[in-house]
Amino acid sequence: MRILFHGPGTSTYLPEIRLPNTSGLRHAATDRLIDLKDSHSLTSNRGNLIHGEAPARIFQCRRRLSAFANLGTLHRIFGNRLKDVLPNHFDLIVLSAANFISPSRDLTRLRDALNVLGNAVPFMVLGAGMQGDHALSELHPSVQEILDIYNRRAVLFAVRGKHTEGWLHENGFTNAKALGCPSMYVFPQSILSIDHTAAHQAGSAAKILTAGYLTIKKGRNFPRGQKLAKALRGARASYVFQDEFFGYGKIIEEHGSFNDATNMGDRVGLNRLLGSAAGISLNIENYYYFSETAAWRQVAFGHDAYIGDRFHGGVAALQVGRPGIFLSHDNRVAELTDYFDLPRMTLDELLSEGVGTAIRQRITAGSVAQMKATYRGRFQQFAETLSEHGVKLHSSV
Question: GO MF annotations for this entry (predicted)?
Fold first, then answer.
């Protein structure tokens, strides 16, 4: 099967020249955080890399005849010929989605591409989810239309959890089916190897990988970042950026603010800036920004556990067999953690309990066993559903 994967599965620049056997470029080597901004535009939130790459990693397909692409961009290039061009090259289109059911999203380009494409190539949707709780009428018209297109025409309209499934069914999109996020199915053996022992033995001295919203004052979600900073005081924590550092001001323009070889930011300068903003003495051990997922997973492997405010940051840790506690601020994290029985708590609870207590109470032999039992069932359902639509997985449990 020849598959077109629509989604931010890579942070490489795609060449505009139309020659066979050409490939995209990585961003240029840099020692400044600000120079990552152009590359960031390829995927936006870097957590998109974790879910965007997942279907292409696990679906069996004719790999030399399959590709990543953006349907909106292809529509801009080919116009109405899109419905004639794509069937000559692909047997299936896979759209890896995330938090697009939100009033803040405008998906006009994707809607227009899907309308031109019609039923020329079958397509499926994976991982679709809600951001907040809104009335259907509050969504941009393009998002409302896309939901209708997915419901009527997708061979599979898979959403990330029961909350999204229920909301869609209530609004008439009854073909939506909860199957979780595809990123959870890439490395099942790693997830089934997760153990609580090392994190328990380390306790409050555990090496923690975290992510969230460490920002300067007036930055997006500043109160959440401030609480996270205070909760991690004294912990051996490393922080993974996704996009928040672009609002940090002059520091990101300084040479030496980023080491591209190690994916690390300037910890001294960043601790000083963010600690001052949070009103505490901050001592994060390392700051990371990743442009590809293998490096992300390798860093996660060097930690005992993940405790953070970004779901896909935690998935990177689960994918290498490290346990995680997910900080749930809204329905996005809650829905996914509930679907897979992953430990979650609020930032206020972490701030009150501390890292050591959180690990002892939430990463336990019982919670890990429950998660694994639930995961086996979820994986099996995912694999069987895909098989019903002619797609086999490389992974298995």
Answer: transferase activity
